[in-house]
Design goal:
Layout: H1 2-39, H2 44-55, H3 62-65, H4 73-84, H5 92-108, H6 112-124, H7 134-147, H8 162-165, H9 168-190, H10 195-200, H11 202-211
Helix pairs in contact: 1-4, 1-5, 1-9, 1-11, 2-9, 4-11, 5-9, 7-9
Length: 212
Amino acid sequence: MYWWRNSYIKMFKQELKNETISLGAIYQASNEIKKIAWQGEINNKIIEPLIHSVYQTTSNEIAEIYISVNKLNTGLDFLRKQLVGDAFSKDAEVVRYFEAIGVLVKNMNKHPDIVSNLRDELSKHSSEITQENIHDHASFLSDLYLKTVSKINPRIIVNGDNKYLTKTNNASMIRALLLSAIRSYILWQQSGGSRFRIFIFRKKIAKLALTL
């Protein structure tokens, strides 16, 4: 009986760790979308692991999907503040992106042909990602997003300053980041993640976000 309990505890801790990592990635992507939309600010270093994750469809270790957990420190810190921070730390716009992505992922399940096409195209284009070629990948992923995910309703509406939203590089990077957020949301669900678990284990997730 004790070995069963220990095995369960170990599995629970691993699941919660994986949920926390993928949640951090969603929030990192959502926050970068906001920065691009309102400030025109593209941080290649922060975005690199997010773009990398979109192409990773076979990895058994969730940390490897983002190159390493350390590359998600920005998102994990942002996640922690959303869960246990004061009122000034909460970001309604980023939370809205999280909710919109969840609705879109749910509706993607009703369009297996689009999902299959998305997966096939990604498998053909898995060259190395660096901070130097990240805009080339963003352009490819943006086109792929328009041909696949954007066909599914409701579309995700990105608010921002038009002088930044209308720039091609910014628009491409936003769509690429939306794809990465979708990928991370699916990983979060596959790890056992749900809104209920966020509510129940909010403090545990926040603690993990600080210590990972």
